[in-house]
Amino acid sequence: MGKPEKRIVKEINVDLSKCNGCRACEKACAAFHAKPKYSSFNPARSRIKVVIDERNDQWIPVRAGGYTQAECNGRNRYVIDGKEYSECALCPASCPSRSWFKEPDSGLPLKCDMCEDIPPLEEPMCVQMCGRGCLTYVEREVTVTERQTREAESQMELTTAYESLVKRHGQKKVVDTFSRLSNR
Ligand code: SF4
Ligand code: SF4
Ligand code: SF4
Q: Which residue ranges have their beta carbon within 6 Å of ligand 2?
């Protein structure tokens, strides 16, 4: 086994008690990912979604975590500060059961990229625009083994390969083909 390496993990902490549902984070993310950058506020391009339930005064910012091919069976109900959140409310997946986190032009799944840019931003856009301090940016140093590094790299290659297949053949065709192959 190779020598463990130090890596910086970037995270965004969420303090739900501070969120007032203003959706500034959504707008900031949408503008950052607009083409050209900052040219529009199309919420469909945002990689963060504020789930809003006005009747119960519930607001939950959820960041896009990646693609899932099918609805899961393990849905949970959550109670936070006495408020009950329904099954999918805290789930970050781009999932067939809902319209969230799908790129409006291509239908490609959206995933939070921590606002990677050149030069890097001091803090991600959603954090910068959250005036309530609900979102806070943290960097943590972790130790990873060579195997974990290889797994992360191969996951990244798979994602890139998947995106290029979808661009070429369309999402439906690619998903159908994967389903057929995995049922063999
Ligand atoms: S949105 Fe998430 S929790 Fe809901 S069905 Fe899809 S994967 Fe499961
Ligand atoms: S970190 Fe950047 S990409 Fe991720 S949700 Fe926030 S604004 Fe969007
Ligand atoms: S900007 Fe902050 S307070 Fe406003 S909806 Fe987003 S997380 Fe909540």
A: 28-29, 32, 47-48, 63, 112-115, 124-126
The dihedrals phi and psi of 31, each to the nearest 5 degrees, come to -65, -40
Amino acid letter, 162: Y
Please tell me the pTM assigned to this model: 0.78
Find the 24 Cα to ligand 2 centroid distance in Å. 12
Q: pLDDT tens across 95-145, in order?
A: 988 889 999 888 889 999 999 999 999 999 999 999 999 999 999 988 887
Ligand 3 touching residue 23 (CB < 6 A): yes
CA atoms within 13 A on the CB side of 62: 21
Residue 78 inside a domain? The answer is yes
In a domain, 52, yes or no: yes
Same domain for 184 and 93, yes or no, is: no
